[in-house]
Structures
1.
Amino acid sequence: MGAARDSSTGLNVLWLQSGGCGGCSMSLLCADTTDFHGQWRDAGIHLLWHPSLSLESGSEVIEMLNRVLDGTLRVDALCVEGSLLRGPHGTGRFHVMAGTGVPMIQWVTRLAARARHVIAIGSCAAWGGITASGDNPTDACGLQYDDDRRGGLLGAAFRSGSGLPVINVAGCPTHPGWVNDTLMALAADGLTEADLDTFGRPRFYADQLVHHGCTRNEFYEFKASAEKPSDLGCMMEHMGCKGTQAHADCNTRLWNGEGSCTRGGYACISCTEPGFQEPGHPFHQTPKIAGIPIGLPTDMPKAWFVALASLSKSATPRRVKVNATADHIVVAPAARKTRLK
């Protein structure tokens, strides 16, 4: 996998890594399939080059990139992993592609102009992500966003050869299924602008909430909350969980076939959202005003939430209340006659 070939059919994919940790590539290799290479091949996806998965290096890669720029090698999907480092002072020289003397941001800009589709792999490439946090000394940004502001490296008006804006497969890391499904949809010519949400994320996962399918939903319904790590209860009220606000299908499209952050006992930090890396408070704490969480569920007015929470807590069954602050089931559901009504 990784021969630099120009297939007359299928989707030619070029994958570059910029300012990031490489976690999205590691996530991709955990795709829920027994034959990752075969899955791409059968979908008509041809990997031209990936810095970790391909054999070509050095002059071979530079020659391939130049073939893309002169139009002799077709790129259908330019995938960029990691944020784009514009510093110092807009020169991009904090990140120069080895052997070329040319900043990565220049390579990406030139290659994006040749690509049919441009895809941001992960939240760093989409919004700037972790790399852009703090004082952001490298002037890191996303391909078409700088946090939630349109612009980024390529500019707000950028459109790829297909007429689409940058496709933001956001996540930290992004789910391998989101990457595979996006590429497969593009290979089948089945992804349009209507299939992207207002932040350019594929709607097949971004129209969902992490809250959907969460195993702690019974505790959420009764506002029976966890008070410390390892508790079984809902982590929204005290433990910083943003699952009711985060756009992703993590609890219905499980990681490695069985896991998610909340199923592992960790609060959702909304890693698919712009600015998630700097919430203004510790990730494991829920900021409140007058005892009410600042971050309320999507589309729920505060008055409704306060009323619902008060009613729910007054109706919480003892079983749910006790189990919420335990690390195992203390009180099991009552067994009744089998003639359920």
2.
Amino acid sequence: MRDYWNNRFNNEGYIWGEEPSKTVIDAKRLFALNDVKTILVPGAGYGRNTKILSDTFQVDAIEISTEAINLAREWDKRSYFIEGSIFELSTSNKCYDAIYCYDLLHLFAQIERIKLIETCVQHLNKGGLYYFTCFSNEDESFGVGQEIEENTFEYKKGKISHFFSEDDLIRHFKETEIIETGKVEEVFEYSDNSIRTYKLRYIYGQKK
């Protein structure tokens, strides 16, 4: 996966443009209302979403791609970028008031998805907040490619996506206190001028 993302960021640069996701604006509002001070952002990419958080909060951002990290450190000079995998963070690392995780969860098979959530929750302070987004089973790409697990498809060689129903998303976070779930559409214009609308789900909750 590291090689895949290094190649993409090297060839495409700011893949999803410069505007932040509307979900990070929502998350920022919710975090501010709850007196959040510190945030962890797994799968931070080139900082498209961290930049809007780091003007208010102390942000640590972890990203597996060296190429993305190089872009991010120029794009968002306030966040602290860590090169590595969220799975490699040990439980001895510091904990945070909140976690914002944009479109990372659906990139893994079920065992890794559960591990990702558990790792993130471990790095929340007691009562800490989380905000995750992921692909919806209402997206037009649902069903494309070979199904390797229920609602999980290999749509490119070596690259998979899981598509969440609302019930499925709630089951993944059953060990937490779920506050809100919802749907959102994101529109991206890529470097080749193609435009794509993605249907996402989000979940907002709290560590018990």
